[in-house]
Protein backbone atom coordinates (compact mmCIF):
# COMPACT_ATOMS: atom_id res chain seq x y z
CA UNK A 1 0.00 0.00 0.00
CA UNK A 2 1.37 3.54 -0.78
CA UNK A 3 2.69 5.53 2.17
CA UNK A 4 0.14 8.30 2.04
CA UNK A 5 -2.40 9.98 4.25
CA UNK A 6 -5.14 9.41 1.67
CA UNK A 7 -8.08 7.37 2.96
CA UNK A 8 -7.84 3.67 2.22
CA UNK A 9 -11.56 3.44 2.39
CA UNK A 10 -13.87 6.24 3.36
CA UNK A 11 -17.47 5.54 4.14
CA UNK A 12 -19.86 8.49 4.15
CA UNK A 13 -20.16 9.38 7.80
CA UNK A 14 -22.14 12.02 9.62
CA UNK A 15 -20.39 13.06 12.80
CA UNK A 16 -22.77 13.94 15.56
CA UNK A 17 -21.96 16.65 18.07
CA UNK A 18 -21.22 14.16 20.80
CA UNK A 19 -17.62 12.99 20.58
CA UNK A 20 -16.59 10.14 22.83
CA UNK A 21 -12.91 9.89 23.67
CA UNK A 22 -11.72 6.34 24.34
CA UNK A 23 -8.73 6.77 26.62
CA UNK A 24 -8.33 3.13 27.58
CA UNK A 25 -7.04 1.96 30.96
CA UNK A 26 -4.27 3.80 32.73
CA UNK A 27 -2.13 0.90 33.80
CA UNK A 28 0.62 3.16 35.17
CA UNK A 29 -1.62 5.04 37.64
CA UNK A 30 -0.83 4.52 41.31
CA UNK A 31 -4.16 3.89 43.01
CA UNK A 32 -2.68 4.76 46.43
CA UNK A 33 -2.45 8.34 47.66
CA UNK A 34 0.46 9.63 49.74
CA UNK A 35 2.41 6.48 48.78
CA UNK A 36 5.70 7.58 50.37
CA UNK A 37 4.11 8.97 53.54
CA UNK A 38 5.34 12.52 52.92
CA UNK A 39 2.07 14.23 53.88
CA UNK A 40 1.26 14.33 57.60
CA UNK A 41 -0.84 16.40 59.99
CA UNK A 42 1.97 16.80 62.53
CA UNK A 43 5.50 15.52 63.04
CA UNK A 44 5.80 12.17 64.85
CA UNK A 45 7.40 12.28 68.29
CA UNK A 46 6.40 9.03 69.98
CA UNK A 47 5.74 5.35 69.41
CA UNK A 48 2.63 4.50 67.40
CA UNK A 49 2.26 7.89 65.73
CA UNK A 50 1.00 6.42 62.46
CA UNK A 51 -2.37 8.24 62.69
CA UNK A 52 -0.64 11.52 61.70
CA UNK A 53 0.02 10.13 58.18
CA UNK A 54 -2.50 11.59 55.72
CA UNK A 55 -4.86 9.15 53.92
CA UNK A 56 -3.56 6.09 55.78
CA UNK A 57 -5.31 4.05 58.48
CA UNK A 58 -3.58 2.26 61.34
CA UNK A 59 -4.74 -0.76 63.32
CA UNK A 60 -4.97 -1.30 67.04
CA UNK A 61 -1.31 -2.44 67.16
CA UNK A 62 -0.21 1.11 66.26
CA UNK A 63 2.45 1.13 63.52
CA UNK A 64 5.28 3.64 63.86
CA UNK A 65 5.92 6.68 61.66
CA UNK A 66 9.37 8.20 61.21
CA UNK A 67 9.96 11.71 59.90
CA UNK A 68 10.99 15.21 61.02
CA UNK A 69 14.09 13.86 62.81
CA UNK A 70 12.12 11.23 64.72
CA UNK A 71 13.98 8.00 63.86
CA UNK A 72 14.22 4.36 64.95
CA UNK A 73 17.35 5.34 66.91
CA UNK A 74 15.17 7.72 68.90
CA UNK A 75 12.47 5.13 69.49
CA UNK A 76 13.86 1.60 69.52
CA UNK A 77 17.66 1.91 69.52
CA UNK A 78 17.64 0.57 65.98
CA UNK A 79 20.20 1.80 63.52
CA UNK A 80 18.57 4.15 61.06
CA UNK A 81 17.71 2.56 57.70
CA UNK A 82 19.17 5.65 56.09
CA UNK A 83 17.30 8.12 53.96
CA UNK A 84 14.59 6.33 51.98
CA UNK A 85 14.82 6.66 48.19
CA UNK A 86 11.77 8.95 48.09
CA UNK A 87 11.36 11.82 50.54
CA UNK A 88 11.99 11.55 54.26
CA UNK A 89 8.99 9.70 55.73
CA UNK A 90 8.73 5.95 56.22
CA UNK A 91 6.83 3.45 58.35
CA UNK A 92 7.79 0.87 60.96
CA UNK A 93 5.86 -2.39 61.36
CA UNK A 94 6.42 -5.47 63.52
CA UNK A 95 5.26 -9.07 63.88
CA UNK A 96 5.80 -11.62 66.65
CA UNK A 97 5.74 -15.37 67.19
CA UNK A 98 2.06 -15.28 68.13
CA UNK A 99 1.27 -14.16 64.54
CA UNK A 100 0.29 -10.73 65.76
CA UNK A 101 1.38 -7.98 63.37
CA UNK A 102 0.86 -4.32 62.71
CA UNK A 103 -0.79 -3.33 59.46
CA UNK A 104 -1.47 -0.14 57.56
CA UNK A 105 -4.41 0.42 55.25
CA UNK A 106 -6.11 2.86 52.92
CA UNK A 107 -9.58 3.46 51.50
CA UNK A 108 -9.22 3.54 47.72
CA UNK A 109 -10.43 6.43 45.60
CA UNK A 110 -10.84 3.97 42.71
CA UNK A 111 -12.14 0.51 43.55
CA UNK A 112 -10.32 -2.59 42.35
CA UNK A 113 -12.51 -4.42 39.86
CA UNK A 114 -13.46 -8.01 40.57
CA UNK A 115 -11.50 -10.59 38.51
CA UNK A 116 -8.91 -8.02 37.37
CA UNK A 117 -5.21 -8.49 38.11
CA UNK A 118 -3.28 -5.89 40.13
CA UNK A 119 0.34 -5.25 41.05
CA UNK A 120 1.48 -4.07 44.48
CA UNK A 121 5.03 -2.80 44.99
CA UNK A 122 6.96 -1.29 47.88
CA UNK A 123 10.45 -1.08 49.34
CA UNK A 124 11.38 -2.48 52.73
CA UNK A 125 14.31 -3.47 54.92
CA UNK A 126 14.78 -5.32 58.18
CA UNK A 127 15.72 -3.52 61.39
CA UNK A 128 19.01 -4.02 63.19
CA UNK A 129 19.82 -2.92 66.74
CA UNK A 130 22.60 -0.80 68.17
CA UNK A 131 21.24 -0.88 71.72
CA UNK A 132 19.40 -3.12 74.20
CA UNK A 133 17.44 -4.95 71.52
CA UNK A 134 18.94 -8.08 70.03
CA UNK A 135 18.87 -9.00 66.36
CA UNK A 136 20.50 -12.32 65.68
CA UNK A 137 20.21 -12.42 61.89
CA UNK A 138 21.54 -10.38 58.98
CA UNK A 139 18.36 -11.09 57.04
CA UNK A 140 14.76 -11.73 58.00
CA UNK A 141 12.69 -14.40 56.28
CA UNK A 142 9.10 -13.21 56.36
CA UNK A 143 6.03 -12.75 54.19
CA UNK A 144 4.32 -9.62 52.98
CA UNK A 145 0.55 -9.90 53.03
CA UNK A 146 -1.97 -7.74 51.19
CA UNK A 147 -5.58 -7.77 52.41
CA UNK A 148 -8.74 -6.37 50.86
CA UNK A 149 -12.29 -5.52 51.84
CA UNK A 150 -15.57 -4.55 50.22
CA UNK A 151 -16.28 -2.20 53.12
CA UNK A 152 -13.42 0.17 53.83
CA UNK A 153 -14.75 0.86 57.32
CA UNK A 154 -13.56 -2.65 58.20
CA UNK A 155 -9.96 -1.41 58.17
CA UNK A 156 -10.63 0.85 61.14
CA UNK A 157 -9.00 -0.32 64.40
CA UNK A 158 -12.39 0.09 66.04
CA UNK A 159 -14.01 -2.72 64.03
CA UNK A 160 -11.51 -5.61 64.20
CA UNK A 161 -13.30 -7.21 61.24
CA UNK A 162 -11.19 -9.89 59.48
CA UNK A 163 -10.10 -8.82 56.01
CA UNK A 164 -9.75 -11.04 52.93
CA UNK A 165 -6.22 -12.16 52.11
CA UNK A 166 -5.36 -11.12 48.54
CA UNK A 167 -1.68 -12.05 48.46
CA UNK A 168 0.79 -13.89 50.72
CA UNK A 169 4.34 -13.65 49.35
CA UNK A 170 7.43 -15.04 51.13
CA UNK A 171 10.39 -12.63 51.03
CA UNK A 172 13.83 -12.18 52.55
CA UNK A 173 14.69 -8.69 53.78
CA UNK A 174 18.21 -7.40 54.29
CA UNK A 175 19.10 -5.20 57.25
CA UNK A 176 21.71 -3.37 55.17
CA UNK A 177 19.75 -2.14 52.15
CA UNK A 178 16.24 -1.34 50.98
CA UNK A 179 14.67 -4.23 49.05
CA UNK A 180 12.16 -3.81 46.22
CA UNK A 181 9.08 -6.02 46.56
CA UNK A 182 6.51 -6.82 43.87
CA UNK A 183 3.43 -9.00 44.28
CA UNK A 184 0.44 -9.61 42.04
CA UNK A 185 -3.08 -10.75 42.80
CA UNK A 186 -6.54 -11.07 41.27
CA UNK A 187 -9.26 -9.11 43.05
CA UNK A 188 -11.93 -11.62 44.15
CA UNK A 189 -14.53 -8.85 44.43
CA UNK A 190 -14.77 -5.08 44.04
CA UNK A 191 -12.17 -3.99 46.60
CA UNK A 192 -12.74 -0.61 48.29
CA UNK A 193 -9.83 -0.73 50.74
CA UNK A 194 -6.55 -2.58 51.24
CA UNK A 195 -4.19 -3.27 54.14
CA UNK A 196 -0.55 -4.39 54.22
CA UNK A 197 1.46 -6.22 56.88
CA UNK A 198 4.52 -8.40 57.40
CA UNK A 199 3.74 -11.72 59.04
CA UNK A 200 5.08 -15.21 59.78
CA UNK A 201 8.62 -13.95 60.19
CA UNK A 202 11.40 -16.00 61.76
CA UNK A 203 10.29 -16.47 65.33
CA UNK A 204 12.05 -14.30 67.83
CA UNK A 205 14.47 -12.31 65.68
CA UNK A 206 14.62 -9.68 68.42
CA UNK A 207 13.89 -9.35 72.10
CA UNK A 208 14.07 -6.63 74.72
CA UNK A 209 16.16 -7.78 77.71
CA UNK A 210 14.72 -4.99 79.84
CA UNK A 211 11.24 -6.51 79.40
CA UNK A 212 11.76 -10.27 78.83
CA UNK A 213 8.08 -10.99 79.41
CA UNK A 214 7.27 -9.37 76.07
CA UNK A 215 7.01 -11.68 73.03
CA UNK A 216 10.00 -11.68 70.69
CA UNK A 217 9.39 -9.85 67.46
CA UNK A 218 10.71 -8.83 64.04
CA UNK A 219 10.69 -5.23 62.86
CA UNK A 220 10.46 -3.85 59.32
CA UNK A 221 10.74 -0.48 57.60
CA UNK A 222 8.34 0.30 54.73
CA UNK A 223 8.15 3.01 52.08
CA UNK A 224 7.20 3.90 48.48
CA UNK A 225 4.02 1.86 48.02
CA UNK A 226 2.27 1.45 44.69
CA UNK A 227 -0.91 -0.29 43.58
CA UNK A 228 -1.83 -0.44 39.90
CA UNK A 229 -3.91 -2.36 37.40
CA UNK A 230 -1.70 -4.97 35.76
CA UNK A 231 -1.73 -4.79 32.01
CA UNK A 232 -3.00 -7.93 30.30
CA UNK A 233 -0.41 -7.15 27.64
CA UNK A 234 2.57 -8.17 29.74
CA UNK A 235 5.67 -6.24 28.71
CA UNK A 236 3.69 -4.10 26.26
CA UNK A 237 3.29 -0.91 28.28
CA UNK A 238 0.94 2.05 27.98
CA UNK A 239 2.60 5.34 27.05
CA UNK A 240 0.22 7.35 24.87
CA UNK A 241 -1.59 10.57 25.71
CA UNK A 242 -4.41 12.66 24.25
CA UNK A 243 -6.16 11.46 21.12
CA UNK A 244 -3.10 10.00 19.35
CA UNK A 245 -2.83 6.21 18.97
CA UNK A 246 0.60 4.98 17.83
CA UNK A 247 1.03 1.49 16.43
CA UNK A 248 3.73 -0.57 18.22
CA UNK A 249 3.11 -4.08 16.90
CA UNK A 250 4.26 -5.26 20.31
CA UNK A 251 2.49 -8.63 20.00
CA UNK A 252 1.77 -9.29 16.33
CA UNK A 253 0.19 -7.66 13.24
CA UNK A 254 -3.46 -7.68 14.35
CA UNK A 255 -4.90 -4.14 14.16
CA UNK A 256 -7.68 -5.17 16.57
CA UNK A 257 -5.36 -6.42 19.35
CA UNK A 258 -5.21 -3.64 21.99
CA UNK A 259 -1.69 -4.75 22.97
CA UNK A 260 -0.37 -3.63 19.58
CA UNK A 261 -1.12 0.03 20.36
CA UNK A 262 0.69 2.38 22.74
CA UNK A 263 -2.64 3.12 24.43
CA UNK A 264 -3.37 -0.59 24.98
CA UNK A 265 -6.74 -0.03 23.34
CA UNK A 266 -7.94 -0.07 19.73
CA UNK A 267 -8.38 3.29 17.90
CA UNK A 268 -11.86 4.74 17.44
CA UNK A 269 -13.35 7.39 15.15
CA UNK A 270 -11.84 10.11 17.40
CA UNK A 271 -8.28 8.68 17.28
CA UNK A 272 -5.42 10.19 15.31
CA UNK A 273 -3.46 7.12 14.26
CA UNK A 274 0.30 7.08 13.65
CA UNK A 275 1.95 4.13 11.89
CA UNK A 276 5.77 4.16 12.33
CA UNK A 277 8.35 1.85 10.76
CA UNK A 278 8.22 -1.25 13.00
CA UNK A 279 8.81 -4.97 12.55
CA UNK A 280 5.13 -5.95 12.75
CA UNK A 281 3.11 -3.91 10.27
CA UNK A 282 -0.62 -3.68 11.05
CA UNK A 283 -2.97 -6.00 9.18
CA UNK A 284 -6.70 -5.26 8.90
CA UNK A 285 -8.78 -8.35 8.33
CA UNK A 286 -12.52 -8.58 7.77
CA UNK A 287 -15.05 -10.83 9.48
CA UNK A 288 -15.44 -11.57 12.28
CA UNK A 289 -13.76 -8.22 13.00
CA UNK A 290 -15.71 -4.99 12.62
CA UNK A 291 -14.40 -2.22 10.42
CA UNK A 292 -11.24 -0.50 11.67
CA UNK A 293 -11.77 3.17 12.49
CA UNK A 294 -9.76 6.33 13.04
CA UNK A 295 -10.20 10.06 12.68
CA UNK A 296 -7.05 10.49 10.60
CA UNK A 297 -3.91 8.50 9.90
CA UNK A 298 -0.24 9.37 9.43
CA UNK A 299 2.00 6.71 7.90
CA UNK A 300 5.60 7.55 8.65
CA UNK A 301 8.48 6.68 6.27
CA UNK A 302 8.92 2.92 6.23
CA UNK A 303 5.53 2.35 7.83
CA UNK A 304 2.88 0.20 6.18
CA UNK A 305 -0.78 -0.69 6.69
CA UNK A 306 -1.86 -3.98 5.12
CA UNK A 307 -5.53 -4.20 4.18
CA UNK A 308 -6.99 -7.61 3.34
CA UNK A 309 -9.91 -6.51 1.20
CA UNK A 310 -10.69 -10.05 0.07
CA UNK A 311 -11.73 -10.93 3.62
CA UNK A 312 -13.78 -7.75 3.93
CA UNK A 313 -11.17 -5.65 5.71
CA UNK A 314 -12.20 -2.00 5.96
CA UNK A 315 -10.52 1.10 7.41
CA UNK A 316 -12.82 4.09 7.95
CA UNK A 317 -10.93 7.39 8.06
CA UNK A 318 -13.59 9.90 9.04
CA UNK A 319 -11.71 13.18 8.80
CA UNK A 320 -13.40 15.32 6.11
Write the layout of secondary structure elements.
Layout lengths: L56 E2 L5 E3 L5 H5 L13 E7 L6 E10 L4 E10 L7 E2 L3 E11 L14 E11 L4 E8 L4 E9 L6 E2 L9 E13 L14 E3 L25 E4 L7 E2 L7 E3 L1 E4 L6 E2 L7 E3 L3
Parallel strand pairs: 13-14, 14-17, 15-18, 16-19
Antiparallel strand pairs: 1-4, 2-3, 3-12, 4-10, 5-9, 5-12, 6-11, 7-8, 7-10
Provide an overview of this structure.
With 320 residues, the chain is an all-beta fold. The chain folds into two domains: 1-27 and 233-320, no CATH class; 50-229, Sandwich (Jelly Rolls), CATH 2.60.120.260. It is 2% helix and 34% strand. The chain has one helix and 19 strands. It has one helix at 72-76; strands spanning 57-58, 64-66, 90-96, 103-112, 117-126, 134-135, 139-149, 164-174, 179-186, 191-199, 206-207, 217-229, 244-246, 272-275, 283-284, 292-294, 296-299, 306-307, 315-317. The chain has a five-stranded antiparallel beta sheet, with no helix packed on it. Strands 2-3-12-5-9 form a five-stranded antiparallel beta sheet, with no helix packed on it. Mean pLDDT is 80; it is low at 1-24, 130-136 and 201-215.
Name a few traits of the molecule.
320 residues; Jelly Rolls; 2 domains; five-stranded antiparallel β-sheet; 1 helix; 2% helix; 34% strand; disordered N terminus
What coarse outline follows from CA principal-axis ratios?
A: elongated
- Beta strand count: 19
How many domains? The number is 2
Specify the CATH architecture of the largest domain. Answer: Sandwich
CATH topology name of the largest domain, in short, is Jelly Rolls
* Superfamily (CATH H level) name of the largest domain: Galactose-binding domain-like
Could you give the distance between the termini? Answer: 21 Å
Unreliable runs, pLDDT <50, ≥5 residues? 1-24, 130-136, 201-215
Overall pLDDT confidence: 80
Largest sheet strand order: 1-4-10-7-8
Structural class: mainly beta
Helix content: under 10%
The CATH C-level name of the largest domain is Mainly Beta
- Major beta-sheet overview: 5 strands, antiparallel
Estimate what percentage of residues fall within beta strands: 25-35%
Radius of gyration: 26 Å
Query: Which series of helices and strands comes N to C?
Result: EEHEEEEEEEEEEEEEEEEE
- Output the number of helix runs: 1
Amino acid sequence: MPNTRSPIYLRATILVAIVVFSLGHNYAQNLLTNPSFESYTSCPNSQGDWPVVVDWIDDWNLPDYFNCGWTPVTQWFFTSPGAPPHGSGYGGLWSNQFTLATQIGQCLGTNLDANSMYKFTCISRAAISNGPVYNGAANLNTAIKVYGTQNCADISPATLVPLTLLSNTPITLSNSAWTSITVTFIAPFDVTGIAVSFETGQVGGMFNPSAPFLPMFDYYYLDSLSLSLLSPCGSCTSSGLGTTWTWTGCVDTDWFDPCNWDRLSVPTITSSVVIPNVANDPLILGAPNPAANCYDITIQPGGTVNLNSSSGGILNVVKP
